[in-house]
Amino acid sequence: MAPKTRKFLDALTQDQILGTIPSGLFLVDNKRYIVYWNPEAERITGYPAAEMVGQHCSILEGIECGLGCSLFDAGSPDKPIIGAECDIRTKSGEKIFISKNVDFLRLDGEVVGGIESFVNISSQKKLEETLRLNSDELEKIVQKRTAALEEERTRVHTVLNGMTDLAYIVTDDYRLDFFNQPMKNVFGPSKGNICYEVLHNLREPCVECPWSKIKKGHSINEDREFRQNKRTYEVIHTPVYSPQGDLLKLAICRDITERKEATEKLMELNRHLDSFAYTVSHDLRSPLTPIIGYAEFLKEEYTEIKKAFCGEVAAPVKITMLCPVGRRQGLVVPHARAGQTPGKSPESESIHLLPHQARMRVQASYTTVPISKRVNPYQSMMRGRSRGKCIGGKNVLVTIHSSESFKK
User: What is the pTM assigned to this prediction?
Assistant: First the structure.
């Protein structure tokens, strides 16, 4: 021991040690009478030293003291005794709990008495009792909740087994926790096996495995094909929890093989319908192409034609077009009258009619007169002008109608 330490220990008196320790302490002789009572013992029990010295230690009414002395009885435990717990009565009659250490006092190898130190653990005991009661209550709640979860789990399994859709539950380590009866019919009993091995014949987790999203609380829909029966299923993955609170994945698989095949056939029919509609639309637009083109031609050339005929044709004239469409159809379309601006006249509406309708309406009102019989002086001019104005790859024939035609 260092000299400085020895110096301080020599300066420390026994009374100082006994008076400053944070534990109650007392000494008894071989007959168990108290011969020393320190200040902390006074504070804990309420008994002053003057009152306790000379008293038998049983005055404290400790449990062990009532049943026998743990210090001096022959059958008492080996000494020292550490951490023994008992309750005593304070001077005010309050019951408190203490934790104590006891041992013999020896002088020249002979037992001359005993020493006991103790601390008040009543607050700790109350907290322990409160925790115990709360723990019991919590245990009851947990048991009740667990029973409810187990009952709910049983109901869920019953519902899943009664479904015609395939259903299974997987743990987060890819092990199958539940297979409903339709799944067993396809894959056989597989509880406890690895899901990707049983369902997809793979040696590692699926690339598109939804577990990462399931752990975030999301539900996932996907279409998957099972190789065992070569059927396509719409699979809904949903997060669920076990009675122990472990996250699981519930997958419900609905067979959509026929629906998918029907959808593909419908899409193919739609493609054929689009192609047919395009063809019909093109065929319907083809007869109108030369009509519209010739209308543009008249718009550009009408002024000169009017001047050429103004001296020979006194009455207003009407110009129409004969345009062959296909091998079996011809279309006569009235376009404009001299002195009028082309617009929404009854005649111009024929452009929007089907070919046979337009022809029937025009022929019922007008008589087509070839230009070669009426205006020979200008036939070469018209042919010259129309030669560069072929509409839609077809030649057009310009005809002139007299005022008698309009009156009809």
Answer: 0.40
